[in-house]
Amino acid sequence: MSAGGALARVIRSAAAGRDRPERCDLCDAPAPDGHRHLYDTGRREVLCACGACAVLFAGDGTGSGQYLLVPRRRVRLAPVDTGPLGVPVGLVFFVPRADGTVTAQGPSPAGAMRWEVDADRWREMCTRCPQLASLAPEVEALLVNTVRGFDHHWIVPVDDCFRMVAVVRREWRGLAGGGRVWPAVEQFFTELTERP
Length: 196
Hints:
InterPro entries: DUF5947 (IPR045991). This protein is an alpha+beta fold.
């Protein structure tokens, strides 16, 4: 997933105080607060969508097509041991792909860092935590925060992951992040709420 499209706009609008309304990335119509997002499988990025485009371009409901409607589901999980996946950071999200691969991405001041995850290890983890097997490829993720003693594990839509990356980019100062980034990350997780 690139830092273009919706993520770049989230970062710009946060920095600029959001002085202009969001626009649909497909038709340029206004996209109201709480608008839906589409995942563009060709460009591998999340796009803002007005109501009409969310319905029109949401694919055929089978998870195929160029645009996939990003679901709204959020589920808080019991702690999941992600150590066997070999990702060296504690603030990370894992996205299963339609081709069976899994990517891990962690936020940094420059955007999301990316790793490929061993597919067999991911399947083993899904055996231990069956809820992970229900992740919709490309558009849902396992979001983990074990930094500074926290223990957050969530199934979330990928647009939540991009919002978290934007928070880190917006708040990071200097080489170590400064005093604002980690309280902002914790506030982000505190504000997550479960929804079906």
